[in-house]
Sequence to fold (279 residues):
Amino acid sequence: MYCPVRRPGCGLLHGFLLGSILVGLTTPSCSVERSAASLPAAPAGGSGPAADIALPIDELVRRHVEARGGKVAIEAIDSVEIDLRIVEPSFEVTGLYRADRKGRMRIDIFNEGKRVFSESFDGRNGWQLAENAAHPTPSEKGSAALRNSAQMPTKFLGLHEMTARGHRLDPAGREAVGGNLYHVIVLTLAGGQSERYYLDPETYLITRSRAYKPLHPDVDPTPTTIESVYSDFRTVAGVRFAFQAVDTDLTTGKVLQRSTILDLRPNRPAEDALLGLAP
Fold:
């Protein structure tokens, strides 16, 4: 999708975030970050000379942005509020994810209707609020992942907006994965985290991404290469979002998380208090 939560892997949240969540419900599993150059690349392939042509980065970004709905529609979304279903090997929960263009985000996790965990990034720091805690605590290990969550172009921001936000886009040629010869763009965030985005050669939507990082940094900071596969694209407010994401550990082949958007509401202004947990 344009992914929703972050540490709950990569996928919708990945980017959505759930990083350290559910300490009481999960079993440790996952990662940290490394440079784009060290991320695994699939072997190149193609059906002929024309199929192997790597387009200039500006053209790739243009085609992708148009496929999502265009600059005007994308930039008209100032915030999102998303209901999610998150399934991991040891549990299934629902979540409410919020993010805005100021870089703030919050996710609340519910088990059978009861809030069991919350975390947020208030624009400066990351915070966690456990199930029965009276006050939030700083999320030192998860702060970077939470901050990055609202920056990913698989959420609601556009790929064309990355450079102006201090991030870098680099072309990485073509890669053959699962029978498709993808166009690949590497996004390096201002903080150093890199992620490979795979643009479908026919639609130019991002249908895969790969990153070397932890699924739940606060639970287990061990890095691994996580691939997110995005599908079920739907149009909301003129912009296409992936409503399904599956995160897989490429080292073991194990499915780490499945995320499903149940409802996505754009431009639902929230009080500042809702996008931060700081006391």
User: Anything to note?
Assistant: Residues 1-11, 14-50 have pLDDT under 50 and may be disordered.
